[in-house]
Amino acid sequence: MTETAINRFWDCVSPDLIQTFSVNGIPYTGKSKYQSIQILDSPAFGRCLILDGKIQCSESDEFVYHEAMVHPPMIAHPKPETVFVAGGSEGATLREVLAHKTVKRVYKDFHYATEDKGRVLHSYSYSLSGSSEIE
């Protein structure tokens, strides 16, 4: 993340595109065994998860990605009962899977980059998953 006097996050999406937005708080900055981790608060996007300087997810628009990823295969299956969630340490994928009443068992393999910092991400996960019970 590049910070200036007006507290902005800069993400070089491609050689031709830089995304930037204001930041009004940085509740966490640290490093796991594999990646740097930041949690940012932004007036435009709410709480954001940043891994290795790249935005992964934000409160305001995460549903677009998670709903589109989860619901088509869940609806295509006649009766999904057992589901495997790879990655998804913020809990939003799991939230969408559990919206399907036929699901009886979920196996989860949360992202290796955040496994060391699970407690740090709790407030972020809570805001996306809607549940403090997701580990």
Please give the structural blueprint.
Layout: E1 8-14, E2 17-22, E3 25-31, E4 36-42, E5 46-51, E6 54-58, H1 62-76, E7 82-86, H2 92-97, E8 105-109, H3 122-129
Describe, in plain words, how this protein is organized in 3D.
With 135 residues, the protein is α+β, with helices and mostly antiparallel strands. The chain has 3 helices and 8 strands. A 4-stranded antiparallel β-sheet has the order 3-4-5-6, covered by helices on one side. A hairpin with a 2-residue loop joins strand 5 and strand 6 (54-58). Residues 113-120 and 131-135 have low confidence and may be disordered.
User: So what's the CATH class?
Assistant: Mainly Beta
Global structural class: alpha+beta
- In total, how many beta strands? 8
Going by CATH, the architecture would be: Roll
Proportion of residues in extended strands: 35-45%
General form: elongated
User: How helical, in percent, are the residues?
Assistant: 10-25%
Unreliable residue runs: 113-120, 131-135
Radius of gyration equals 16 Å
The largest pleated sheet is described as: 4 strands, antiparallel
**N-to-C terminal Cα separation, in Å?**
28 Å
Order of helices and strands: EEEEEEHEHEH
The helix tally amounts to: 3
In the residues, how many domains can be counted?
1
Strand order of the largest sheet: 3-4-5-6
Output the CATH homologous superfamily: Spermidine synthase, tetramerisation domain
Mean pLDDT value: 81
